[in-house]
Design goal:
Strand order of the largest sheet: 3-9-8-5-6
Distance between the termini: 61 Å
Helix content: 10-25%
Oligomer: single chain
Order of helices and strands: HEEEEEHEEHEEEHHEEEEEE
Largest sheet: 5 strands, mixed
Strand content: 25-35%
Radius of gyration: 20 Å
Shape: globular
CATH superfamily of one domain: Cupredoxins -  blue copper proteins
CATH topology of one domain: Immunoglobulin-like
Length: about 200
């Protein structure tokens, strides 16, 4: 009888954990790509999953936030190769102990110039109700400085200017067009992004 009780208790606990787990698609409809600035994903817990959809990219788990910022892949671990999308990363208890996970793309200059890097903040608590549902937010066409402000949660550039509105105004989008699948398509060209050591690009989506 005791064994049956323990088995039932274990099954119930597993069911609760399964019901509480969440799946977060990185970049939502756009996915994992360069040219986007990803805001850190928060409120994730062990058992949750991150879904990476990508084309000519990879997913590298970085060993520190500093190496993420420096795009230093020397100690990183490639968890998904080019062509292996969609890739699902399951959040572990070890990730919760570390507190944060860091991901980047090692292809070309996608990390350094394309801002293709992501911070995921992991919550150890798996019992209390989440304050917010985890989600992936991003913005197109940001400079590295603007991206840092966006990722920090700031709403202005320190001089009273709303950099999010400025970025939106600098983007040009076509009118919605209904395609053969009855889906409206919109194409957008961001404002210019300054590159280092020189040059300017525009990101199109």
């Amino acid at each position: 009888m005791k064994s049956i009780f323990l088995l039932t208790l274990f099954a119930s606990a597993s069911l609760v954990a399964s019901q509480q787990s969440r799946s977060v698609k990185v970049g939502n409809d756009v996915g994992w790509t360069d040219g986007l600035c990803y805001r850190p994903i928060s409120n994730v817990r062990p058992g949750d999953s991150l879904i990476f959809e990508f084309g000519g990219h990879d997913v590298v788990k970085m060993d520190s936030e500093q190496n993420l910022e420096d795009c230093n892949f020397s100690n990183g671990v490639t968890v998904a190769q080019v062509g292996s999308a969609p890739f699902e990363y399951i959040i572990t208890e070890e990730d919760a102990v570390e507190g944060s996970i860091f991901f980047a793309c090692s292809i070309g200059a996608h990390c350094s110039q394309g801002l293709q890097r992501l911070i995921v903040n992991v919550d150890m608590d798996t019992i209390e109700e989440r304050p917010e549902t985890p989600s992936s937010e991003y913005i197109l066409g940001m400079s590295e400085t603007g991206c840092s402000l966006f990722q920090s949660g700031a709403t202005n550039d320190g001089e009273g200017n709303d950099f999010l509105i400025s970025n939106t105004l600098s983007s040009e989008c076509t009118d919605p067009v209904l395609d053969e699948s009855n889906i409206y398509q919109v194409s957008c060209l961001s404002g210019p992004i300054t590159l280092t050591p020189g040059g300017v690009i525009n990101s199109a989506r």
